[in-house]
Amino acid sequence: MEQGKIKVVQYGFGPIGQACVRAVLKRDSLLLTGVIDVDPEKVGKDISEILKLNGKRGIKVQRDAEKVLEEAEPDVVLHTTQSFVPKVFDQISQCVEAGAHVISSTEELYWPHYRHPELAEKLDLLAQKHSVVILGTGVNPGFVMDTLPIALTSQCLEVNKIFATRVVDASKRRRPLQKKIGAGMTPDDFRVAVELGQLGHIGLVESLVAIADTLGWKLSRLDETIDPVIAEEQVKTPYLTVEPGQVAGIKHICRGYVDDEEVLTLDLRMYVGAKEPKDEVIIDGNPPVHAVLPGGIFGDTATVANLVNAIPRVLHATPGLRSVIDLGVPYAFLK
User: Fold this and answer.
1) DSSP3 helix / strand / coil % (the chain, rounded to 5)
2) For 270-288, how does the pLDDT look when each residue is reduced to its tens digit (9 = 90+)?
3) Is the pLDDT of residue 1 over 80?
4) What is the mean pLDDT of residues 80-105?
5) Is the pTM above the cut of 0.85?
6) In a domain, 153, yes or no
7) pLDDT at residue 3, as a whole number
8) Shared-domain flag, residues 75 and 214
9) Which domain does 25 fall in, by range?
10) How far apart are CA 150 and CA 155, in angstroms?
11) How many independent structural domains does the chain possess?
12) Are 125 and 148 in contact (CB under 8 A)?
């Protein structure tokens, strides 16, 4: 084992997990010691075969998480499996009990106290007991529509309202995301899927509540709407074709109110063929702030960056279930 390196285990080896491993392998201060996944098409294979790397790396994908955690002895686990806290609770707990910090892309984990206060408290106490940190992060939630607006309010003496807009051309994103936004469905099937909770962007409500909690705004209510964006022309992606009249993606809006006045608006439009992608934050305050990132931040790469870049901050953070806000200013971890 190489001395002085941060040992990392990757838990979940889908598109994001694979990109995380590539990033870990490029950093001299990190040492990949294990990979966990349940996909029978991957289990037992050397990571070099799956990632199409030259030469075997001597690390095979394994299903038995307990065995990997015991043998690999990770300092940090990069966790990229599912979106919902109840579904990953046991996975994260297992990593913590093995003495590893956990940095997860689970969207609900960005601000878990809102939907799952009891599970969040259990994770917090468990992490404190084992002197490690649990962090939920990513690009959205994790940065664009929550951490970035929060950071921009630091320039204001007064904040009255915040508007954050993200427009994403989903045709350039991974297959699971295109499916998650309903690309290629009929409008009727889309609405049924929304009613069943099968579509929509997970974490937008968490972003809204995170902003409100951080600023000390007590929301009297919040609401969200999820509507289809209908394709006006044929759009082809590497994974599917959307015909005119079919669903191209979603328009997902969350609104937060204080005393029945709308003070927070998060407007996410994620669809294949979006013409002018962007990230935009408008703060009605003193002074007013208007920030626009033309083209927007590319979500798949940025998600991986937020996970890997959090490693040094997590290692020096106070043990417990922490948020990105708790860890201070994000920055690139390049070595």
Assistant:
1) 35, 30, 40
2) 999 998 999 999 999 999 9
3) no
4) 97
5) yes
6) yes
7) 67
8) no
9) 6-138+302-322
10) 10
11) 2
12) no
